[in-house]
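#onboarding

Welcome to the new folks! Below is a worked example of what a typical request in this channel looks like: someone posts a single protein sequence, and someone else replies with the predicted structure as tokens. Don't worry about understanding the tokens yet, we'll cover that in week two.

Example request:
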Amino acid sequence: MTISLKPLDREDKDGWLELWQGFLENYGENASAHLTFSTFDKLVTKEYPLRSRIALDENQRVVGFIHYFLNDSTWQTRESCFIEDLYVAKDMRRQGIGRQLLDDVARVAGINRWSRMYMAVPGSDETALSFLNVFLKKKTGLSLIINFDMII
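Example response:
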């Protein structure tokens, strides 16, 4: 299966919305239409700091996304990249798409000389923790912050 990666654009809205709903359901969350559309607008507006890259299958179906933003730090001289969301459609998991999305942002980080990539994961999300532990063993430059406050 061929997967292509690209920045999220306005024409990807329907595919992103479908995945976004699956992402919210995965965490037992609910988002208002206002929040959902506001989030999408922020992700595709170049002047806003939120960014998104998406994975497309050979039929141009959106099958994964990664949302991130840059921030400054008192401990770094260059910007850091916080990965806020990483999600792959349930029927497309275990095919390396999450890894491809993380690698793609890491590639962009290297080009832009960001100081680090990091993310927080709910301590109760064993699937995400298992995936990220495998990823961290193969890569350097991604810090994992387990957010124990998010454990239900």
